[in-house]
Amino acid sequence: MAELGGPKLDGPRIEPRSGNARQLVVFLHGYGADGNDLIEIGRAWAALLPDAAFVSPHAPNRCGQAPVGREWFALTFRDPGERWTGVNQAAPALNGFLDAELARRQLPPSALALVGFSQGTMMALHVGLRRAVPPAAIVGYSGMLVVPEDVDPDKFAAEIRSKPPVLLIHGDADELIPVPALFQAAQGLAALDIPAEWHISPGIGHGIDQEGLRQGGEFLARRFAARK
Question: Quick one: fold of 13-227?
Answer without folding.
Answer: Rossmann fold (3.40.50)
